[in-house]
Design goal:
With 423 residues, this protein is an alpha/beta fold. It has 2 domains: 250 residues, UDP-N-acetylmuramoyl-L-alanine:D-glutamate ligase, CATH 3.40.1190.10; 151 residues, Mur ligase, C-terminal domain (Protein-Tyrosine Phosphatase, Chain A, Alpha-Beta Complex), CATH 3.90.190.20. It is 41% helix and 13% strand. It has 16 helices and 14 strands. The strands form 2 sheets. The protein has an 8-stranded mixed beta sheet with strand order 4-3-2-5-1-6-7-8, sandwiched between helices. β3 and β4 form a beta hairpin. The chain is globular and about 55 Å long. The two termini are 34 Å apart. It comes from Aspergillus chevalieri.
Length: 423
């Protein structure tokens, strides 16, 4: 169950002063990518850096990294057990995410990081991560409609909740590609706090950040990727003088092309899980904005090769299925529906029944084959691989489905032995 609020996490960490400075990132989409860019560039510059994102991808501890390496499982379990014991002994009743946040922050202390790059879990104002006080810069990424039951029914209400991470005397960076309603809401809050807000738009990069503009051109990035990268670089320009005054962001920029963000527009090879040698696109798009981005990417990168695309999809309950999948499934496509398994640490997350999902997709105009596979993900991707016959194949609709795919692939590679199946 999701329980927003700061009282439990504050008590849980009241005897643990945080020994590091933070870069705090909120938003609906893009905050994970921004976190990855920021932490990678910091680590490339020799700044000892921790990163905390959510949810985890394959293992529960992979949401915490130290200098771009996933924290050791043994250390994670040791500190998590200490945090849980403290919670039980003092009777705080902390939620799963609050326990995880406290564990991450304690690990940052233990590992003596200089900067913690922290992604908001949900919202901002009442998110457990908002107990951070020593913040170098706050970042607001792209905001859309999501989690309305907890954050508000309008885009303005949601933007106000996300703006709750903004703090007096702390500079902020805002993705200026946000809607007018979001920008107006954020500007109002920034003025209330008397902050200097840095609203960054990739169209202005040529004049304001020419070094980054050259990287944009070389990497052939989509608009949302440019916006996320520009937000990350702008945040570093504000944060570095307080951490490494002699370190210039431009000297770190060549490292930005090394950043990989698994589960987001990720090309993988599914061998030996299935007998397909051609790459498959894996993406955790799970809301309207991210689905639109995926649709644009597929139109630009995959459909020119072959008009029809084959999909393997799943979704969490509570999503607008027509809005989500209508953004990228097109006439002539083939679709396999499945569901992800239990999510470690988040028992409240449930998958849509694959038959219900198949019924929804069948209502789309001129869809070809649609087949439901219950919880049998390997059967779904085998069927899709055969139907695609070497053509474009995309797995999407849920980050939890992406997690299950990567976990199954790791198990298949382990069973196959060294030298087989790389992703």
């Amino acid at each position: 169950m999701i329980e927003l609020g700061l009282s439990r996490i504050s008590r849980l960490l009241q005897q643990t002063p945080l020994s590091w400075k933070a870069i705090h990132i909120a938003g609906t989409n893009g905050k994970g990518s921004i976190s990855a860019y920021v932490s990678h560039l910091l680590a490339s510059g020799g700044v000892r850096c921790g990163r905390f994102t959510s949810p985890h991808l394959i293992d529960r501890w992979d949401c915490i990294t130290i200098d771009e390496k996933v924290v050791q499982e043994s250390l994670f379990r040791q500190i998590e057990e200490e945090v849980k014991l403290r919670d039980q002994t003092l009777g705080f009743g902390a939620s799963e995410f609050e326990l995880l946040t406290a564990t991450a922050f304690e690990i940052f202390n233990h590992e003596r990081v200089e900067v913690g790059v922290v992604e908001v879990g949900m919202g901002g104002r009442l998110d457990a991560t908002n107990i951070l006080s020593d913040v170098l810069v706050s970042v607001i990424a792209k905001i859309g409609l999501d989690h309305q039951a907890l954050l508000g029914n309008s885009i303005e209400e949601i933007a106000r909740e996300k703006a709750g991470i903004l703090k007096p005397h702390t500079p902020c960076v805002v993705d200026a590609t946000n809607s007018t309603e979001v920008i107006t809401t954020l500007e109002s809050r920034i003025q209330e706090l008397g902050l200097e807000g840095d609203f960054v738009h990739p169209e202005a990069v040529e004049s304001q950040a020419p070094s980054l503009a050259r990287i944009f051109e070389r990497l052939d990035l989509l608009p949302h990727q440019r916006a996320n990268m520009y937000c990350a670089v702008s945040a570093l320009q504000l944060a570095l003088p307080k951490v490494r005054p002699r370190l210039d962001v431009d000297t770190l920029l060549p490292h930005i092309s090394e950043v990989k963000w698994p589960g987001r527009l990720q090309d993988i090879v599914l061998e030996p899980l299935v007998a397909r040698k051609e790459p498959v696109l894996l993406d955790g798009a799970h809301n309207a904005q991210s689905a639109q981005v995926l649709g644009e990417y597929v139109e630009r990168k995959l459909r020119p090769q072959q008009k029809n695309v084959t999909w393997v999809i799943a979704a969490s309950r509570g999503k607008d299925l027509t809005e989500l999948f209508g953004a990228f499934i097109k006439p002539g496509d083939d679709v396999a529906t499945t569901s992800f398994g239990p999510v470690d640490g988040m028992p409240w997350v449930k998958a849509v029944d694959p038959t219900e999902l198949a019924t929804c997709v069948q209502s789309f105009p001129e869809i070809q084959q649609v087949k439901a596979f219950d919880k049998d993900i390997p059967a779904a991707i085998n069927w899709a691989s055969n139907v695609a016959n070497g053509g474009p194949l995309v797995i999407a609709g849920s980050l939890y489905l992406a997690s299950d795919i990567l976990r199954l692939l790791r198990e298949a590679q382990t069973s196959a032995g060294p030298g087989r199946g790389t992703c």
